[in-house]
Every structure is written in structure tokens, then in C-alpha cells.
């Protein structure tokens, strides 16, 4: 079945440094790749997304890259701040459903 | 725009009872709604996909007779957990996809925390 693998499961970076989270997907029909930030007990918040016809997208400190051939996509957060601490999920979506990665717990060290 | 509500936000029930959770798209029509379950420190696991006016499609391993889904209108889907047991305690989140959007963006409800005693 469809699968999305996400690495690392935990990530600790110094404030101001960059953080990178990587995902791979299996379903060739996936054409939309959102990234979510989730705080404890709350709904996932869309922070950035990329569609299959684009290779990269940037929004201020956040960027996402997509390699459709290799079925890889990555989230890059630059100049990390304490408020970036949260759990991040990647996802791959086809017309029928979204499949989530297993999540990355990001901690920003002061 | 694209607001999804969910009710109740929290529910505590006794083992063996049934619990109904509502998911509403407040300002758009949702062709498809999705139900997820999330256990502590885990990812969102898709339980089922519901399309208005038709039977829900359940993911492998999800019991359709235990988790009843009704998508009666373009703005409302309900999930009923029947004969709830403590192992059903979890965070249940719905999402909705808007008809007019070309891509597959989903909008999430705030979630319902179910505790079965």
C-alpha cells in the first residue's frame, strides 16, 4: 500500500541553525505534498506545500524541495527560533487521500 | 475561509457505550471528508474516506461496523464509535476537501479527544 517515510524522528538544533527533515513516498499518483506543524493536542497546521509540477518553493524561513523522480521531498527551516519547536509531519496526497509520515519532533536549543 | 469544525472537542464515556463525533465544513462544500485517529506521540492514521451520499471507504484494519461513518450532506460527516472500549481512546481528527479546489488540499478540524473508561 501507499507509504510515506520520514526522517529523522527527533531533531535538536541550536537556535539560529537550520533544520532539515526528509521524506520519501511510494505512490506514483501523489501530486501534492503538504507539510504540517502540530502542537500538542491541536490540529495539524499547514506550513507549506508543494505541487508535483514544481521543484522547490520558499516562504520566508521555510523551503520545500521535491524530486519526483526519486520520490523524495524535504523541508528546510533556516534561522530556527524557539517557536519552531513542535512536531512536523510530511504528507503525500493523491486524488483519493493524504498519507502522513511518522513525524519529526523538532527541538530548538537556546 | 475553509473552516472545519468538530464537535465535541472532548468526550469521556463508559466502556460499551457509543459516541458520535460531528465534522462540519462551515464556509465551503466538501466533496470528501476524511477521518483520522492519532495515538499519543504517533502520526495521523487515516481511518476512512467519506463521500457525500455514498458509503465510506475504510482503510485496511479499520472495522466498519465499529466505526460508523455517515456523510449526509456536503457540509456534515459523522463518525460513531460503537461499543467503545478503552483501547479506542484516542484523538480523532476530521478533514475536508473543497469541491472547487483543483488540488488535494485538506482542511482539518480541531480534533476530538475521546477517553473511554
Would you give an account of this structure?
The complex is a heterodimer of chains A (110) and B (117). Chain A is mainly β and 110 residues long. Chain A is built from no helices and eleven strands. Chain A has strands spanning 4-7, 10-14, 19-25, 32-38, 45-51, 56-59, 62-67, 72-77, 86-93, 98-100, 104-109. In chain A, β6 and β7 form a beta hairpin. Chain A is globular. The mean pLDDT of chain A is 94. With 117 residues, chain B is mainly β. In chain B, 0% of the residues lie in helices and 54% in strands. Chain B has strands spanning 4-7, 10-13, 19-25, 30-38, 45-51, 57-58, 67-73, 76-81, 90-98, 106-108, 112-116. In chain B, the strands form two sheets. In chain B, strands 2, 4, 5, 6, 9, 10 and 11 form a seven-stranded mixed β-sheet that branches. In chain B, strands 1-3-8-7 form a four-stranded antiparallel β-sheet, with no helix packed on it. In chain B, β9 (90-98) and β10 form a beta hairpin. The radius of gyration of chain B is 13 Å and the shape is globular. The interface between A and B is medium-sized, with 23 and 20 residues.
